[in-house]
UniProtKB/TrEMBL annotation:
Signal peptide positions (record): 1-20
Residues covered by the Peptidase S8/S53 domain: 144-564
Secreted as UniProt keyword: yes
Family note: Belongs to the peptidase S8 family.
GO molecular function: serine-type endopeptidase activity
Protein name: Subtilisin
């Protein structure tokens, strides 16, 4: 869910774009709720004084507003309703530290759909064999007992046997909980809170809670004895808003939760959000906030969701594991049965019933191929076999749906496993993944006779043929726009078998960074249980330093922007007593002197009772760019072997038991970094125990990127053959030339479509009279559009932004007085600021248009 009605949400939506002549204006509006803001007051030390002073300033300026929620514990401020046009006045008040428009936040994917389903049995979590959690359980008997995990999600079916069937009663593991929204909440309407966070219509929260702490004896999450607080922030449709998330964070804190597990977010890349401010406050109070980076892997760099993008969050990306559970599909041709694995979105993985339905090849109606990239022959109720390649998976799915298919089976176009078919959440079509050899064998058989397919309702273990964890393609890339290492680490996220609400089949598979997040939350619970005395900082370091790097064979590891510290190693994290600095941000956005060495000091803490001797080495990682050599956005990222070297003052050091402090310095040679290349360069410091001494390898990522604004134009010149930015009529979408008359009724609103190639800090919109286009006549907004994510054009990622203007303006002299722009001839001026530090903006002036009231 990315498109949200903006200024005039009630307008009738126009037809989808046709050919290259128009753009669909109903899509890709900025993900902001109109007329709703979070305000943070300046605290007393900053000269402000909270709500009373803020209210006084609002009153003095004559700005009407309504408070919908006060925040007092983790941020001094409020959620308010106020006309969008007043935001610039508010931002200028002495007592206002920051204002943020309210945004909609979605799950990393949708819920289970709520079909009545045949129950699946409890099964063991396969992931524990790869993360060291299984070994911790058997050797150290760690279960998370006494540690409180707060889960901010869609609620929990606490009647499920894996949660004891109880809620807040004596002896129950679920000690806290609240529903902030009610079933009908859709992000826009008024929440209807109550005391019962039951999850029966979504399922996401129940799956997440199971991974962190479910326990029925057979199925066991990471911390099966942990105590839970359940904070429901989304209704049945899986959308939350900033306000309810902030409320839930404050409540979980007040309830004494040690860990907050947040498997939701808004794609952004920026870290300047109110959720991030609360994450910082929680960190200051010694709490852990574990968050999912998002499923925008196709969006390349800077795609981390908020709140994961906040500096102090533990941001989790996802990996595929070699073994996973799946349902399977049996295809029978004559006497031959081919068994293939089930794949796709969670919803599609709700137990599926297909018995002896036709199994047919996707045949293009235009003749020939079986890619299903265009219309295919009718296949009513059938499983359709299509070849991978040539177009997006969702295109194939839509074409199969249009042909009446009941399911889609995709065979690989190259040898090996293509992974799971995983397409747009809005497309409700079950899918299967088939090896190339099997696909070709089936085609040969189909040539001889008809075939049928049946789904085996049992779940069995499949292998993807890899020998260890590998990156999940959907896991979002970092770093954050300001260069923080994000994700911090990776955990199992694909095809994770966990609990579902009883009415959805009790157990089932879901995929996403949503699933990787609670895995890490549970691991933090085990860490807290085993090291009660350690500081928050130490636990972060233990968790991060001990991760295992994923390699992009042969010579490089995957980029730090993709894997952060690497893949979770819970066993090593718990069983080491040695930590080093977390990471180095080597070269942030503006590298001015590229020839020098940048030196950093390494901090260590030997909490154990043994002296530790480590060797130091540097491990290069793949350099990546979100742009091709012509500075055009690309997905997946372009790679390069240019290396950012690290050198050490000392190559071997003995750290005395119980000592803490600084001991080594590391220098990063930025010489290879060239501004115009816009590459993210990264690498790892690897500390490995001297032969014959105890200890694990500890790795510390570092990352830097060169970035000169002029290298990449902020505004893309075109999209789909249409020159951008352009002025269109809302609902029509055809680029306009000079002279269009707008009446501000019906669909007749000026709309600007633009596509940005780098993250944009702020968009400023002003109006000039057409006769004097450089003299500002009135302002539309200064502070409404902040922190925009860059656009992309792969998958469901927004390829452009649609900005609809409702004709309301104000003048500088009197910012709180709003008026409808009078009839006359005008141009609209847009400025796109890449940063908050005064860099010159990209500008766009629309063709002349006429306002006629
Ligand atoms: C504004 O908020 C930030 C983050 O909470 C804080 O660091 C800063 O001191 C505040 N500024 C004032 C003037 O209160
Ligand atoms: C916010 O706090 C003020 C002052 O304490 C109070 O008057 C108001 O009712 C509160 N609003 C809400 C929505 O809680
Ligand atoms: C297979 O399809 C994928 C996805 O479209 C594509 O990237 C790849 O190049 C194709 N491989 C071959 C051998 O055509
Ligand atoms: C599918 O094939 C497997 C292996 O041949 C067999 O055990 C199973 O019963 C079949 N299931 C269905 C529903 O045909
Ligand atoms: C630790 O690092 C050393 C030196 O690079 C390497 O040889 C060894 O394989 C690493 N051990 C593990 C478990 O990764």
């Amino acid at each position: 869910m990315r498109s949200v009605g903006l200024t005039i949400a009630a307008l009738a939506l126009a037809a989808v774009s046709v050919g290259a002549q128009t753009l669909d204006t109903s899509l890709y509006q900025l993900n902001i709720l109109p007329n709703n803001y979070i305000v943070q007051y300046n605290d007393a030390s900053g000269g402000g004084g909270g709500l009373d002073q803020f209210a006084a300033e609002m009153q003095a300026a004559g700005i009407p507003f309504t408070i919908t929620k006060n925040f007092t514990l983790l941020l001094k401020g409020a959620s308010i309703q106020v006309d969008d046009k007043h935001v610039d006045s508010m931002a200028s008040f002495n007592n206002v530290n920051a204002t943020w428009p309210l945004r909609l936040t979605s799950l990393s994917h949708d819920g289970a759909g709520g079909d009545k389903a045949t129950p699946l049995p409890p099964l063991k979590m396969l992931a524990h064999d790869y993360t060291g959690v299984g070994r911790l359980r058997s050797e150290k008997k760690l279960t998370g007992k006494g540690v409180k995990i707060g889960i901010i999600d869609s609620g929990l079916d606490y009647k499920h046997r894996a949660f004891g069937g109880c809620f807040k009663t004596a002896g129950c593991r679920i000690t806290h909980g609240y529903d902030f929204v009610g079933d009908q909440f859709d992000g826009h309407n008024t929440p209807v809170p109550d005391d019962d966070p039951m999850d029966t219509c979504n399922g996401h929260g129940t799956h997440v809670a199971g991974i962190a702490a479910g326990n029925d004896g057979v199925f066991q999450g990471v911390a099966p004895d942990a105590t839970l607080g359940i904070y429901r922030v989304m209704g049945c449709n899986g959308l939350a808003s900033t306000t309810v998330i902030l409320e839930a964070m404050e409540r979980a804190f007040a309830d004494g939760m040690d860990i907050l597990s947040i498997s939701l977010g808004t794609p952004s890349g920026w870290s300047e959000y109110p959720e991030s401010r609360m994450v910082s406050a929680l960190y200051g109070f010694g709490k852990y906030v574990v968050t999912g980076v998002g499923n925008d892997g196709a969006d390349t760099l800077w795609a981390v969701s908020s709140p994961a993008s906040g500096a102090e969050s533990i941001a989790v990306g996802a990996v595929d594991l070699p073994n996973f559970y799946s349902q399977s599909l049996n295809v029978t041709v004559g006497k031959t049965v081919t068994v293939v694995k089930r794949s796709g979105q969670q919803r599609d993985l709700a137990p599926l019933k297909l018995v002896n339905v036709p199994f047919v090849r996707a045949v293009a109606t235009s003749g020939g191929d079986d890619y299903a990239c265009g219309p295919i022959n009718a296949a009513k109720g059938a499983v359709v076999l299509a070849q991978r390649g040539n177009c997006a998976l969702q295109d194939k799915a839509v074409n199969a749906l249009n042909a009446g298919a009941a399911a889609l089976a995709i065979y690989n176009n190259e040898s090996g496993d293509s992974g799971l078919v995983f397409y747009d959440q809005a497309i409700n079509l079950p899918s299967f993944s088939i090896l190339k050899v099997d696909g070709e064998a089936l085609i040969a058989q189909l040539a001889k006779g008809s075939a049928t397919a049946s789904v085996d309702t049992r779940v069995s273990t499949f292998s993807n043929g890899k020998d260890g964890p590998t990156r999940a393609w959907y896991s979002s890339w970092g770093p954050s726009v300001n260069g923080d290492v994000k994700p911090d680490l990776l955990a199992p996220g694909t095809n994770i078998y966990s609990t579902l609400p009883t009415n959805q089949g009790e157990y089932g598979l879901q995929s996403g960074t949503s699933m990787a997040t609670p895995y890490v939350s549970g691991t933090v619970a085990l860490l807290i249980e085993s090291k009660r005395a350690a500081s928050v900082d130490s636990l972060y370091n233990l968790l991060f330093n001990t991760c295992t790097l994923l390699w992009n064979r042969p010579s490089r590891t995957e980029s730090v922007a993709l894997q952060g510290n690497g893949f979770l190693n819970a066993y090593n994290a718990v069983t080491t007593d040695f930590t080093v600095s977390r990471y180095y941000n080597v070269a942030s956005k503006y590298v001015s002197d590229l020839s020098k060495l940048i030196s950093k000091t390494m901090y260590f803490d030997n909490m154990g009772s043994k002296d530790m001797t480590y060797n130091f080495e540097f491990i290069p990682s793949l350099s990546v760019s979100a742009y091709d050599k012509d500075n055009v956005m690309v997905s997946p990222p372009r790679t390069s072997l240019v290396t950012l070297y690290a050198r050490f003052m000392l190559d071997t050091i003995t750290f005395k038991a119980g000592n803490t402090g600084t001991k080594n310095s590391v220098s990063f040679d930025t010489t290879p970094i060239r501004e115009n290349d816009l590459m993210v360069h990264s690498g790892y410091v690897n500390m490995y125990p001297k032969a014959g001494t105890p200890g694990y390898n500890l790795t510390i990522p570092y990352l830097g990127y060169a970035f000169r604004q002029a290298a990449i134009p902020i505004l893309a010149p075109s999209y789909s053959g249409i020159n951008l930015p352009c002025l269109v009529q809302y609902g029509v979408g055809m680029p306009l030339k000079n002279g269009k008359v707008f009446t501000f009724t019906g669909n007749d609103y000026p709309t600007v479509i633009f596509r940005i190639q780098i993250p944009v800090y702020r968009v400023r919109v002003r109006i000039a009279k057409a006769a004097t286009p450089t003299n500002i006549h009135a302002t539309v907004t200064e502070n409404h559009f902040l922190y925009l994510q860059k656009n992309m054009d792969s998958g469901d990622v927004q390829p452009y932004y649609t900005y609809v203007w409702d004709g309301v303006v104000y003048s500088y002299a009197q910012p709180s007085k709003l008026f409808n722009l009078a009839s006359g001839q005008y141009v609209m001026l847009l400025e796109f600021y890449p940063t908050s530090s005064g860099d010159s903006p990209a500008t766009y002036t629309t063709p002349m248009f006429e306002v006629k009231r």
